[in-house]
Write a structure and sequence with these properties.
It comes from Paraglaciecola aquimarina. This is Tetratricopeptide repeat protein. It holds the Pfam family TPR_10. The protein contains 17 helices and no strands. It is an all-alpha fold. The chain is elongated and about 70 Å long. The chain starts with 7 loop residues before the first helix and ends with a helix. 34% of the residues are buried.
């Protein structure tokens, strides 16, 4: 008889550590190695868990189908089923089973399944209501707060700003929240606040192209073209493939009357996205480029 690789308790301890570190590939390899030597229900459930986290839905469905009926009513397993149903574009069923899992354990993962199901159904109001209720009980859940802010961007900008402000109050290193605050205040025409938040985002992530772009757009709107270009010189690299940011850079060059360089930069990169091709045409027309 093959020797068990390690004790079950030791393996579960390793799996918990890998799960916390988001090392899902390593965790899946560990569960499958264990199951090669011993059939164990708890390890099979963990294997299903990590199959889902690795987006191996076909294998996960097979693993779920092979589970004994005695465990199918467990909230944990209902949560697994909800993820499979969500992947199969069956959001109504995913909500039904996801609620069982979430009401048993209001974890972020169970929350995200429900939010994703409501999103598939186009039920933004239900997503927002669920997130608000969740945050009343768990006000320090940063990920849930960021999700709520993102949902509010399209429906209630004031609420989105309030959520992002609370996020940075709870975590001063949350550069995404600072960057989004800068973007929202820019859209609202509040350039002073936009600049303050944008500078904080860049101070936290000095080489992040998205943060650099947001602050540069604030400076562009305030007609501080040279300062904006200094930021774009850091943001625009060979590895930076975002066409919108690249064209923001070109537009700033044109606004700064650096037409020759802007024309050269346009020739250096071929735009592939339809919206980018349209914008190139608009920039050429506006600035009378050949």
């Amino acid at each position: 008889m093959a020797k068990e690789p390690n004790s079950k308790d030791a393996n579960i301890g390793k799996l918990l550590l890998l799960d916390n570190k988001n090392k899902f590939v390593d965790a899946l390899a560990l569960t499958q190695r264990y199951l090669q030597h011993r059939d164990d229900l708890q390890m099979r459930l963990l294997n299903l868990h990590f199959l889902l986290l690795n987006s191996k839905f076909k294998e996960a469905q097979s693993e779920y189908d092979a589970l004994p009926k005695v465990v199918l009513e467990r909230p944990l397993v209902k949560g697994f089923l909800a993820q499979l149903q969500l992947n199969d574009k069956k959001p109504e069923l995913a909500i039904e089973n996801g609620l069982v899992a979430y009401n048993s354990s209001s974890s972020l993962r169970n929350l995200i399944v429900l939010v994703s199901a409501y999103t598939q159904l186009g039920q933004t109001a239900n997503s927002i209501a669920l997130l608000e209720e969740h945050l009343e009980k768990q006000p320090n859940d940063q990920a849930a707060r960021m999700l709520l802010a993102e949902k509010n961007i399209g429906t209630d900008v004031t609420s989105a700003i309030a959520q992002y402000e609370q996020a940075v109050a709870q975590n001063p290193n949350n550069y995404i929240a600072f960057n989004n605050l800068a973007y929202l205040h820019l859209k609202a025409g509040q350039l002073k606040k936009a600049k303050e938040y944008g500078e904080q985002a860049v101070s936290l992530q000095p080489d992040n192209s998205a943060a650099l772009d947001t602050l540069a757009r604030v400076l562009f709107t305030d007609r501080e073209f040279d300062k904006a270009l200094e930021l774009y010189e850091r943001a625009i690299t060979d590895a930076m493939k975002n066409e919108e940011i690249y064209l923001n850079y070109v537009e700033t060059l044109l606004a700064a009357e650096k037409t020759f360089l802007a024309t050269r930069k346009l020739k250096q990169r071929e735009m592939k996205e339809p919206v980018s091709i349209q914008r190139v045409a608009e920039l050429k027309a506006k600035y009378q480029l050949k």
